[in-house]
């Protein structure tokens, strides 16, 4: 063949560095025999967190019913369990018809944007963001407009700044709460202001709440759907994080709010869901047990719980460092750490992450991977035990010390 095969031009603006070149380099080093501490992905199973036994049993006991395709929206017991959860949270008017089960939240993000966007439509996305959101907007013909969640404001957005980005082409606003990568948990007032903005401009609210029960200390998770009654709201969650079942690939998306205005949108989602036949059926049988049973995540995030201890260990190690700073993460399973200003012009996040990997065998995600206009942050997951965290920070200090 004389010419190499070119990829689609639509991939030009698509980035997912969490599993990008650095992660590929880490695999190469592992193949050479090096032991890499990988902190680039929030994958609980790799750090010893097990899916609750009751969920595993529910899936096993229903394997015989999991062999055929199911309805494109998902099995009824799973969708009804999601409805019950929404009702218990104060979300009214939702039935199983407004619930879609997908192969993780990732698939549902793609489907819901594909059903919504026409070429050139704009979507407001936070910066820093979970990069799948920006990528999925671009892949589905939309235009990303990033709104800043600034370090100096603890990564909580200023809604007056968001409103300046709204145009006649704006269709939706993405809210990631609790936030990945920053660990911010938005207060009720901020969420109410975002809802008011969306209602003024007729925007669809896309509420990524996959870390909904993973909050620390006095932080409060407020479901967006309890506030958004006069516009269309899509709420996303799943089994991956709270229930430590990433590999089951089960997520859900719930339509609420102005459902009469969402009828055509719902039909579009159902059509796209039908085209992919259905999502993973065995894992869906764990949903009812997960949502209806004991919420073991509470023991992990409360004081003395493993996730709380690991988070606290990271906070303490950053406080002891002359090279780093961090806003204590109030939710999710990440810390978004800032390099001291002394490294500006000397060592940016990409160069730091590469050197930390090559020389000290620790893999982190550069902050600019999350669509930031700055390059002085990096993200690590808070999943490791405290002993591993101490090893990691000893290596980070050794990496940075020669530059001072």
Arrangement of strands in the largest sheet: 2-8-7-6-5-3-4
Q: Give the CATH level 1 class of the largest domain.
A: Alpha Beta
**Amino- and carboxy-terminal Cα gap:** 52 Å
CATH-level-4 superfamily name of the largest domain: Type I PLP-dependent aspartate aminotransferase-like (Major domain)
Which fold name corresponds to the CATH topology of the largest domain? Aspartate Aminotransferase, domain 2
Structural class by secondary-structure content? alpha/beta
Strand percentage: 15-25%
pLDDT averaged over residues: 95
Order of helices and strands: HEHHEHEHEHEHEEEHHHHHEEHEEEH
Please outline the major beta sheet: 7 strands, mixed
C-alpha Rg (nearest Å): 21 Å
Number of strands: 13
Notes on the structure:
With 404 residues, this protein is an alpha/beta fold. The chain has 2 domains: 9-50 and 299-403, Aspartate Aminotransferase, domain 1 (Alpha-Beta Complex); 69-292, 3-Layer(aba) Sandwich (Aspartate Aminotransferase, domain 2), CATH 3.40.640. Helices cover 36% and strands 15% of the residues. It has 14 helices and 13 strands. It has helices at residues 21-31, 53-61, 76-88, 104-116, 131-139, 159-163, 188-201, 263-275, 281-284, 287-292, 297-301, 306-320, 349-360, 386-400, and strands spanning 37-38, 99-102, 122-127, 143-148, 170-176, 204-208, 232-238, 251-257, 324-326, 334-339, 362-363, 365-366, 377-381. The strands form 3 sheets. The protein has a 7-stranded mixed beta sheet, sandwiched between helices. A 4-stranded antiparallel beta sheet has the order 9-10-13-12. It has a two-stranded parallel ribbon with strand order 1-11. α1 (21-31) runs parallel beside α13, α4 (104-116) packs across α8 and α12 (306-320) packs parallel to α14. It is globular, with a radius of gyration of 21 Å.
């Amino acid at each position: 063949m004389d010419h190499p095969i070119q990829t689609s031009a639509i991939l030009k603006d698509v980035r997912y560095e969490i599993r990008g070149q650095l992660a590929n380099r880490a695999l190469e080093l592992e193949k050479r025999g090096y032991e890499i501490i990988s902190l680039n992905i929030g994958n609980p199973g790799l750090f010893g967190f097990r899916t609750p036994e009751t969920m595993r049993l529910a899936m096993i006991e229903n394997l015989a019913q999991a062999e055929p395709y199911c309805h494109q929206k998902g099995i009824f017991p799973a969708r009804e369990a999601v409805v019950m959860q929404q009702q218990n949270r104060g979300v009214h008017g939702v039935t199983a018809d407004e619930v879609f089960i997908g192969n993780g939240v990732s698939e549902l993000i793609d489907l819901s944007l594909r059903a919504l966007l026409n070429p050139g439509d704009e979507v407001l996305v936070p910066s820093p963001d979970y990069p799948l959101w920006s990528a999925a907007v671009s892949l589905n013909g939309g235009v990303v407009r990033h709104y800043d969640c600034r370090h100096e404001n603890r990564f909580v957005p200023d809604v007056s700044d968001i409103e300046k980005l709204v145009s006649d082409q704006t269709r939706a606003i993405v809210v990631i709460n609790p936030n990945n990568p920053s660990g911010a948990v938005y207060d009720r007032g901020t969420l109410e202001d975002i809802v008011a903005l969306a209602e003024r401009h007729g925007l669809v609210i896309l509420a990524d709440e996959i870390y909904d029960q993973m909050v620390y200390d006095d932080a409060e998770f407020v479901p967006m759907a309890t506030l958004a009654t006069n516009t269309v709201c899509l709420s996303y969650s799943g089994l991956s994080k709270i229930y430590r079942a990433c590999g089951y690939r089960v997520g859900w998306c719930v339509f609420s709010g102005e459902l009469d205005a969402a009828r055509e949108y719902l039909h579009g989602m159902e059509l796209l869901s039908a085209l992919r036949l259905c999502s993973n059926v065995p894992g869906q049988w764990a949903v009812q047990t997960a949502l209806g049973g004991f919420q073991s995540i509470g023991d992990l995030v409360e004081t003395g719980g493993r996730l709380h201890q690991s988070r606290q260990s990271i906070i303490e190690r950053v406080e002891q460092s002359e090279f780093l700073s961090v806003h204590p993460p109030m939710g999710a399973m990440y810390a978004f750490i800032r390099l001291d200003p002394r490294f500006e012009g000397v060592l940016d996040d990409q160069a730091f992450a590469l050197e930390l990997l090559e020389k000290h065998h620790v893999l982190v995600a550069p902050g600019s991977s999350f669509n930031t206009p700055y390059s002085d942050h990096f993200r690590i997951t808070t999943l490791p035990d405290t002993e591993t965290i101490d090893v990691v920070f000893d290596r980070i200090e050794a990496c940075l010390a020669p530059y001072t």
